[in-house]
Amino acid sequence: MFGLTFEKLLIIGVIAVFLLGPERLPHYAAQLGKFVRSARDFANGAKNRMREEMGPDFDDVDWQKLDPRQYDPRRIIRDALSDADPFAEPAAPVVARAAVNENSAYLQRKRKREALGADEVAPFDSEAT
Protein backbone atom coordinates (compact mmCIF):
# COMPACT_ATOMS: atom_id res chain seq x y z
CA MET A 1 0.00 0.00 0.00
CA PHE A 2 2.01 2.95 -1.34
CA GLY A 3 5.19 1.42 0.08
CA LEU A 4 4.10 2.20 3.65
CA THR A 5 5.32 -0.22 6.27
CA PHE A 6 4.24 -0.42 9.89
CA GLU A 7 7.32 1.52 10.99
CA LYS A 8 6.63 4.37 8.55
CA LEU A 9 3.00 4.57 9.67
CA LEU A 10 4.13 4.66 13.29
CA ILE A 11 6.51 7.55 12.55
CA ILE A 12 3.73 9.43 10.73
CA GLY A 13 1.46 8.86 13.73
CA VAL A 14 4.06 10.18 16.18
CA ILE A 15 4.63 13.27 14.02
CA ALA A 16 0.85 13.81 13.84
CA VAL A 17 0.59 13.63 17.64
CA PHE A 18 3.26 16.32 18.00
CA LEU A 19 1.83 18.57 15.28
CA LEU A 20 -1.84 18.32 16.24
CA GLY A 21 -1.47 18.17 19.98
CA PRO A 22 -3.58 16.24 22.44
CA GLU A 23 -6.55 18.63 22.16
CA ARG A 24 -7.20 18.27 18.41
CA LEU A 25 -5.98 14.68 17.91
CA PRO A 26 -9.26 12.89 18.86
CA HIS A 27 -11.24 15.08 16.45
CA TYR A 28 -8.90 14.36 13.52
CA ALA A 29 -8.72 10.65 14.40
CA ALA A 30 -12.53 10.50 14.25
CA GLN A 31 -12.49 12.25 10.87
CA LEU A 32 -9.90 9.77 9.58
CA GLY A 33 -12.07 6.89 10.78
CA LYS A 34 -15.13 8.35 9.01
CA PHE A 35 -13.12 8.77 5.80
CA VAL A 36 -11.86 5.17 5.90
CA ARG A 37 -15.41 3.87 6.52
CA SER A 38 -16.84 5.95 3.67
CA ALA A 39 -14.09 4.78 1.29
CA ARG A 40 -14.78 1.15 2.26
CA ASP A 41 -18.54 1.65 1.81
CA PHE A 42 -17.93 3.28 -1.58
CA ALA A 43 -15.81 0.32 -2.75
CA ASN A 44 -18.32 -2.23 -1.45
CA GLY A 45 -21.19 -0.30 -3.09
CA ALA A 46 -19.40 -0.33 -6.43
CA LYS A 47 -18.75 -4.04 -6.05
CA ASN A 48 -22.38 -4.76 -5.19
CA ARG A 49 -23.66 -2.62 -8.08
CA MET A 50 -21.33 -4.47 -10.47
CA ARG A 51 -22.59 -7.80 -9.14
CA GLU A 52 -26.21 -6.69 -9.66
CA GLU A 53 -25.58 -5.47 -13.21
CA MET A 54 -23.55 -8.50 -14.32
CA GLY A 55 -25.77 -11.05 -12.65
CA PRO A 56 -24.48 -14.59 -12.21
CA ASP A 57 -21.57 -13.96 -14.62
CA PHE A 58 -19.86 -11.84 -11.96
CA ASP A 59 -18.53 -14.88 -10.12
CA ASP A 60 -17.17 -16.43 -13.36
CA VAL A 61 -14.90 -13.48 -14.20
CA ASP A 62 -11.17 -14.11 -13.79
CA TRP A 63 -10.21 -10.85 -12.07
CA GLN A 64 -6.48 -11.67 -12.22
CA LYS A 65 -6.58 -11.42 -16.02
CA LEU A 66 -8.09 -7.93 -15.77
CA ASP A 67 -5.40 -6.63 -13.42
CA PRO A 68 -3.68 -3.72 -15.26
CA ARG A 69 -0.33 -4.71 -13.74
CA GLN A 70 -0.47 -7.92 -15.80
CA TYR A 71 -0.55 -6.09 -19.15
CA ASP A 72 2.55 -6.02 -21.32
CA PRO A 73 2.37 -3.13 -23.83
CA ARG A 74 4.70 -4.93 -26.24
CA ARG A 75 2.41 -7.96 -26.32
CA ILE A 76 -0.69 -5.80 -26.80
CA ILE A 77 0.88 -3.98 -29.76
CA ARG A 78 2.21 -7.21 -31.26
CA ASP A 79 -1.24 -8.82 -30.98
CA ALA A 80 -2.93 -5.76 -32.48
CA LEU A 81 -0.59 -5.66 -35.46
CA SER A 82 -0.63 -9.37 -36.19
CA ASP A 83 -3.12 -10.83 -38.64
CA ALA A 84 -3.34 -14.08 -36.73
CA ASP A 85 -6.57 -15.22 -35.13
CA PRO A 86 -6.28 -14.39 -31.40
CA PHE A 87 -8.41 -17.41 -30.48
CA ALA A 88 -6.43 -19.93 -32.53
CA GLU A 89 -4.20 -22.49 -30.83
CA PRO A 90 -0.63 -21.20 -30.45
CA ALA A 91 1.78 -22.54 -33.03
CA ALA A 92 5.37 -23.58 -32.44
CA PRO A 93 7.55 -20.63 -31.43
CA VAL A 94 9.14 -18.74 -34.28
CA VAL A 95 12.84 -18.07 -33.94
CA ALA A 96 14.02 -14.96 -35.74
CA ARG A 97 17.13 -15.50 -37.81
CA ALA A 98 19.27 -12.85 -39.41
CA ALA A 99 19.80 -12.88 -43.15
CA VAL A 100 23.12 -14.52 -44.04
CA ASN A 101 25.55 -12.42 -46.05
CA GLU A 102 27.61 -14.83 -48.12
CA ASN A 103 30.37 -12.24 -48.55
CA SER A 104 30.86 -11.56 -44.85
CA ALA A 105 34.43 -11.58 -43.55
CA TYR A 106 33.61 -14.39 -41.13
CA LEU A 107 32.35 -16.72 -43.87
CA GLN A 108 35.31 -15.85 -46.13
CA ARG A 109 37.79 -16.75 -43.36
CA LYS A 110 35.85 -19.92 -42.62
CA ARG A 111 35.99 -21.00 -46.28
CA LYS A 112 39.74 -20.33 -46.41
CA ARG A 113 40.34 -22.40 -43.27
CA GLU A 114 38.27 -25.26 -44.65
CA ALA A 115 40.14 -25.05 -47.98
CA LEU A 116 43.58 -25.46 -46.28
CA GLY A 117 45.09 -28.87 -46.45
CA ALA A 118 46.32 -30.84 -43.45
CA ASP A 119 49.98 -29.81 -43.91
CA GLU A 120 49.34 -26.16 -44.92
CA VAL A 121 49.90 -23.30 -42.51
CA ALA A 122 47.24 -20.65 -42.16
CA PRO A 123 48.10 -17.30 -43.77
CA PHE A 124 49.55 -14.65 -41.48
CA ASP A 125 48.67 -10.96 -41.81
CA SER A 126 51.53 -8.86 -40.44
CA GLU A 127 49.48 -5.63 -40.67
CA ALA A 128 46.64 -6.95 -38.51
CA THR A 129 46.29 -5.46 -35.04
Automatic annotation (TrEMBL):
<keyword id="KW-0653">Protein transport</keyword>
<keyword id="KW-0813">Transport</keyword>
<dbReference type="Pfam" id="PF02416">
    <property type="entry name" value="TatA_B_E"/>
</dbReference>
<keyword id="KW-0812">Transmembrane</keyword>
<protein>
    <submittedName>
        <fullName>Sec-independent protein translocase protein TatB</fullName>
    </submittedName>
</protein>
<dbReference type="InterPro" id="IPR003369">
    <property type="entry name" value="TatA/B/E"/>
</dbReference>
<keyword id="KW-1133">Transmembrane helix</keyword>
<keyword id="KW-0472">Membrane</keyword>
<keyword id="KW-0811">Translocation</keyword>
